[in-house]
Amino acid sequence: MLLKMSDIGKSFASGPVLHGVSFTLERGQIHGLVGHNGAGKSTLMKVLGGVHPDHQGKILIDGEEAHLRDPREAHRHGIATIYQDFALVPDLSVADNIALGREPRGMLPGLLSHRQMRERSTQEAAAVGIDLPMDMPIRYLGVAAQQLTEIVRALSQRPRILIMDEPTARLAPAERDHLFQVMRRMAQSGMGIVYISHFLEEVIAIADHVTVLRDGRVVTAKPASDLSVGELARLLVGTAAPSEAQSGAARPQGTGARTAALTLAGFSVAGRPPLDLEIPSGEIVGFAGLIGSGRTHLARGIIGDVASRGSVRVAGRLLKHITPRKAARAGLILVPEDRKATGLVLTGTVRANIELTALDRQLSRFGVVRSRARQRLVHAAINRFQIHPADPQRKVATLSGGNAQKVLLARAASASPRVLILDQPTAGVDVGAKAELHNQIKRLAAEGSAILLISDDLDELLELADRIAIVSGGSVSNLVSKQGLDRGGLLAAISRNAEPVGG
Questions:
Q1: How many CA within 13 A on the CB side of residue 456?
Q2: Nearest 5°: phi and psi at 20?
Q3: Which residue of 77, 99, 364, 470 shows the fewest CB atoms closer than 10 Å?
Q4: How far apart are CA 143 and CA 426, in angstroms?
């Protein structure tokens, strides 16, 4: 047996997270690890990765006890980790990040050979069929390209044990399929892979064995062939998986003309072809496209975060010299794709994050913050979005991914947006949190917000959007009604119009 973790326990100041968890991994096995947000998956893998050395229980690698005191010790034992929250250096290039910790030395002592580093990183990426801009600083890449950089870096270490924490959360279907091919090749070579994912269909498809965690305890561990998606969902949440029908959050279908909440005229970013788009109040328009099609760049242009041409109107009002702050004041709000880097203040409390956008419009008068209104708004948001734990003073950095995402959407909703741009709003959250977030998105539309939804999840677009725009080359190439459109048809439309431009 390659790996045996026995009776692993781990506690934080807030209380115990893991209660005597046991986990095994065979050579050449892909072992799926699933559970609700906060179930303890990432904590268990951080124990294995040497991040949490102060744990109870034993870890055996190849039958010998391993004392993993830090990540370097884990690396010496052949363990590599792709974390859900990226561990990349923003100001270094892609090549530098892939080679981090393994930099080739230059001709003189103390110098590095950047030429060798670039060549080697390029070869390591090509070996797994991934093409990346090696000279570009990480901070200028989209989240998907950052994810691919993490994957190449981990595989380049030639680990015996590879931990993959939500590796497909930001990848398009084609990239996911390619990654699965790479994983199968790695497993055939004898590598053991721990695969953590909230995409239950993917777990059933790729894993040989599955372990389910709930509340820091093992619920079951059995071959993937013995499980169905429905049974896995039931084990994960303890009951039948939440559905939109169960929650009763259906959107009313109004009749008659609706006011245009967002109007783009001759709008373009980065010199791409201009587009005209109008989204009425209460409508959800989905942006579909390949990674690199320019969807995120368009969204950032709409709120004034990057340079653009053309006009942006919110409820008929022309926004001149638009900036993100001016956009927010006008009720035009973006929920960004990377909650860690650009979305949340991780060192801040739940309260501070929720009230941040609403301070200008809802919570202050003549520059003075109204403390009672502030308290009411924060508590109402925590209750509405079912944020757990329901503690306004809790640091956001300590929340699970799903609850952190709820805080981000709660902040946007608390500002009473006229137009809400959602970029990958459910990436990396479990099936329960995803259903809750979907219901809140529908509720926001029912309350009158116009929503522009960017998502790599085709099923999410088909479920939520009224119309779907196909984006390629940084512009909208097609805008279609959802009626009569299925997953295959949408994927075909995306592929036909593909012209990646980055972002």
A1: 22
A2: 65, 50
A3: 364
A4: 14
CA 471/CA 421 separation, integer angstroms:
15
- Alpha carbon distance 316, 302 (integer Å): 15
Q: DSSP assignment of 118-167, as one string?
A: HHHHHHHHHHTT----TTSBGGGS-HHHHHHHHHHHHHHT--SEEEEEST
Residues 6+ apart with CB under 8 A from 29: 2, 187, 192, 193, 208, 209
Do residues 362 and 414 make contact, with C-beta atoms less than 8 angstroms apart?
A: yes
Task: Copy the structure tokens of residue 478.
Answer: 């097609």
pLDDT in tens, 242-282: 444 444 444 545 434 568 999 999 999 977 889 999 999 99
pLDDT tens for 270-326 read 778 899 999 999 999 999 987 678 899 899 999 999 999 999 999 999 999 999 999
pLDDT at 246: 44
- Cβ-based burial of 426 (10 A; exposed 0-12, middle 13-18, buried ≥19): buried
Amino acid at 448: G
Q: Are 93 and 134 in contact (CB under 8 A)?
A: yes
The length of the chain in residues reads: 503
Q: Cα separation of 91 and 99, whole Å?
A: 14
Task: Tell me the two tokens of residue 402.
Answer: 């799903």
Structure tokens that stand for 493 in this block: 């439309």
Percent of the chain with pLDDT over 90: 51
192 touches 1 (CB < 8 A): no
Question: Which residue, among 300, 290, 291, has the nearest Cα to 269 in the 3D structure?
Answer: 300
- CB-based contact 450:363 (threshold 8 Å): no
| DSSP percent split of the chain into helix, strand, coil, nearest 5 | 35, 25, 40
The two beta strands, 317-318 and 332-335, are unpaired
Both tokens assigned to 362: 């809802």
Distance CA 420, CA 331 (A): 8
Which pTM was predicted? 0.65
| Distance from C-alpha of 211 to C-alpha of 223, rounded to nearest angstrom | 9
81, β-bridge pairs: 163
User: CA–CA separation, 272 vs 37, rounded Å?
Assistant: 39
Q: Determine the Cα–Cα distance for residues 129 and 178; give it in Å rounded to an integer.
A: 8
* Contact indicator for 135, 122 with CB cutoff of 8 Å: no
